[in-house]
Write a structure and sequence with these properties.
The complex is a heterodimer of chains A (about 210) and B (about 350).
Chain A (H helix, E strand, L loop, with lengths): L3 E11 L2 E11 L3 E5 L6 H9 L6 E9 L2 E2 L5 H4 L1 E4 L11 H6 L7 H14 L15 H13 L5 E5 L7 H18 L3 E4 L3 H7 L3 E3 L6
Parallel strand pairs in A: 3-8, 3-9, 6-7, 7-8
Antiparallel strand pairs in A: 1-2, 1-4, 4-5
Chain B lengths: L2 H13 L2 H6 L7 H10 L5 H33 L1 H5 L7 H30 L17 H9 L1 H31 L6 H12 L2 H15 L4 H26 L3 H9 L4 H12 L1 H16 L3 H6 L7 H9 L4 H28 L7
The chains are: A alpha/beta (about 210), B mainly alpha (about 350).
Chain lengths: ~210, ~350
Amino acid sequence: MQSSLQIKNLQIFRQDQLLLSLDEHVNGGEILTVMGPSGSGKSSLLNWLTGTLSSSFTATGEVWLNGQNVGNLPTHLRHIGVLYQDALLFSHLTVASNIAFAMPKGNKKQRLAKVEEALEQVGLQGMANRHPDNLSGGQQARVALLRTLLSEPKAILLDEPFSKLDTQLRVDTRQLVFDQIRNRKLPTIMVTHDHSDAEAAKGKVIHLQAINL
Amino acid sequence: MLRLPIFAVLAYASASVEMPLILGPNTPPTLAVAIMNWFNDVDLNLRIKASAGAVLQLALTGSLLALWLACEKTIKTLCSDLLTNGQRDYGGDFWHKVIIVLTTLVIGFILLALMGLVMWSVAGFWRFPAALPEQLVLLHFQSALMQMGSPLFNTLTIGLVTTIFAVVLTLLCLESEQLTAKPLSRFTSLIIYLPLLVPSIAFLFGLVWLQQLINNQTAFFNVAFTHLLFVLPYVFLSLSSSYRRLDPRFSNVAASLGATPCKVFLQVKLPQLFAPILIAAALGLAISFGQYLPTLLAGGGRIATITTEAVTLANGASRRTSAVYAIMQIALPLIGFILAWVLPKCFFKSARR
C-alpha cells in the first residue's frame, strides 16, 4: 500500500481566533513545504501532527497515516519522526547510544553493527563512541537524522532543520536528508523560511498567512 | 519572589526554640521556649496552658507575616510613583557600601565563632587571657567519637530515609504535573510550603499526640515522618525550579522516537537532572540533620541524634565535647554537599573528553 500522510480539515485556533486551516495529502517520498512568516502557526502545525500541541491552542481535524487515524494516539505511538533546528542530541549518551535510543530491542551486537553501518553511510565512520557535544553542527545534524531514521518512522516532519548550517553544509545535508526520505518513501512535511529549501524539495509549496494580532 | 524566603525566616525567627535554648538557657524564656517548658512540665495541667500558648504563637507568627504584607502594600502604594519618575540614582552606591560592611561583619563573626569552635575541640588546658590553648589534644575527638556511634547512626539513617522519600515524592509530583499538563494549583503549593511558615512548636505537639494514637511502638517511623514534613518543602523548592526548566523539546524528540513516557522519565529527564537531584538530596539531608524539636518530640526522647546531643551538651559543662559535636554537626551536611558537587563530575561526564 502506498504510504501517505493525510491532513483532513485541520483548523488550529489560538484563543478562539483561527490561526490556520489545512487540508492536504502527501504521498510517500514527497515533500510538502510550508512557508510563512513568524506567528503564522508553522510550529503549531508540526506540534499538532506529533501530538504535542500546547494547551493554549485548540484544534479540530484529523490526521491519517497510511490509512490509519493517529490523531487520538499519544506521541510515542504515532511513529512520526521530527527533525528540529537544533540537533537535540542527548548529552548523557554517546553518539551510538543516541542513535540506538529509538531502535527496537534486539541483539546488542546487531544493533551496534546497524548503527556503525548507518554512520558510515553518512560519512561519520568511527564516531560511534564520541560525545555529542564534541561534534560540529553538521555532524550533529547528521546524527540526529540517523537517530530519527533508525526509529523506523512512517512519516517525517522537518522544522527548519538546516537553518543553523552554513551555506555549503546546508546544501549537502539537505541533499542527504531528501535522498534518505525519497529512498525510504516517507511522506514529509517541511517548514522553512528558505526558498532554496523549497525548490530542492520539488514538492508542493504552501504559504501561510500571518494573523494580525 | 522574595516573599516566601522572607516569610520562612520571619516564621523561624519568631518561633525558634534551639537558639534561645543555646544562647540563653537561664534567661527569661521566649514564648516558644515557654511553651516547650509547659508541655514538658510534670504538672499535666500545664499542658492546657501550653496548648493555648501554641495557638498564641500561631497568632503571633501569623500577625508578623500579615504585618509584613501590610507594610509591603503600604510602601507599594505610597511609593508607586518612584517606579516611574525617571530617577535612577537612589544612593545605590552608599547602600552598596553599607551592605558590604554589614556582610563582612556577619561573615567575620561566623568565621571567628568557627575558629573558636575548632580551638575548643582540640584544646587541652586553656587559661582565660591566653589567645591560644596551651596544649592541643585529640583526646576530645577520640572520646566523643567513641560515644557518638548511636546518635550518628540514627542521624544518618533518619536523614537518608527521609531524603529518599522526599526526593521520590517530589519527582513523581513534578512528573505528573508535566504529564497531565496542569500546573500545580496554588492550594497544593501552599500545603507543600506550610511547614516552612507555621511555627513548629505550635503544631508539633498536636502532631505527636496524633502519632501516639496511631503508632506508639516505633519511634523511628514517627521521627522520620516528622522530619519528612520539614525536608519536603526544601527538596521541592530545590528540585522544582530545575525540573520545570528542563527543555521540553528533548522529551518531545524522545517521544517522537517512540519512547514511552516512562522511558522518557527514566532515560531522558532523570539523567539531565542528576546534579539537581543530588543537590536537593544534600539539602534534604542537611535539613534532617539539623532538626532538634521534631526529633525530641516525635521520638519521645528515645532517639538521639547528633543535633539533640549537641544542644544538650551546649548547655552542659564541657565546652570541648560540645565543640566536637558541633563540628560533627557542620561536617555531616558538608560531606553531603561535597558529594553532590563531585559525583556529577564522575558520572555523566559531558564534553571535553
